[in-house]
Design a protein that fits this description.
- By secondary structure, the protein is an alpha+beta fold.
- It has one domain: Beta-Lactamase (2-Layer Sandwich).
- It has 3 helices and 5 strands; from the N terminus they run H-E-E-H-E-E-E-H.
- The longest helix has 24 residues.
- It is globular, with a radius of gyration of 14 Å.
Length: 126
């Protein structure tokens, strides 16, 4: 089973729309990332975490089920956030006009693969 880093690399290979991705546990423990620059990585994690927290709060206030995925589109591109077990989540950015369903499917697959790899290895490998 691939580890977290391998799952992120597979995600980039599967979904050519994705520019950057980060796999996170909890408030901001980076498990794997495509970012070469730690400042850019931290900015992405912080922004995605705030978006996720806000969306979760809104879902609770509307008595909706727990949030599992989030898609935000802007004029310059999109951000996708998918959530998984063990308080893990994956955030990915794309350019404009991605195939939304395919990107969400690929991001969920990568997150699930990383979690399965963790179960096989006993912990994430960076």
């Amino acid at each position: 089973m691939p580890n977290a880093r391998e799952a992120i690399q597979e995600l980039l290979e599967m979904s050519t729309s994705i520019r950057q991705a980060v796999l996170v546990r909890g408030e901001g423990e980076v498990l794997a990332s495509t970012f070469a620059n730690s400042q850019s990585e931290a900015a992405m994690v912080g922004m995605a975490r705030r978006m996720l927290e806000e969306a979760r709060m809104e879902a609770r206030e509307m008595d909706r089920p727990a949030l599992t995925q989030l898609f935000v589109e802007s004029m310059s591109g999109c951000i996708f956030i998918v959530t998984g077990e063990k308080d893990t989540w994956l955030a990915a950015t794309t350019g404009t006009d991605p195939t939304v369903g395919l990107v969400l499917y690929d991001a969920n697959t990568a997150l699930r693969t990383a979690l399965e790899g963790e179960a096989d290895e006993g912990d994430y490998s960076k």
